[in-house]
Amino acid sequence: GVLIVNGSLNMGGLCQFTGIVVVIGDAAIAGGGPADVAHIIGALIYQGSLIQDSSVGGSASIFYSSEAINAAQTVGRYTLSWWRER
Length: 86
Hints:
mainly beta, four-stranded parallel sheet
């Protein structure tokens, strides 16, 4: 899939995303223990802030996968599933 985050991304808690993640802000991928490991399979692109508050911690992982990226590009149409503004 394709995940676009307008702000910062904090990812943890045994979650996994396969596809392209684009973050307009900082990205913190947690991996402190067995119950707090996050994985991204595909690609992560982030802009980052002036303070560079981005990190990949512990046993969290980001794996580049051309197969996942190619699959994300074949999505025919996009649907906005959730939106929140502050």
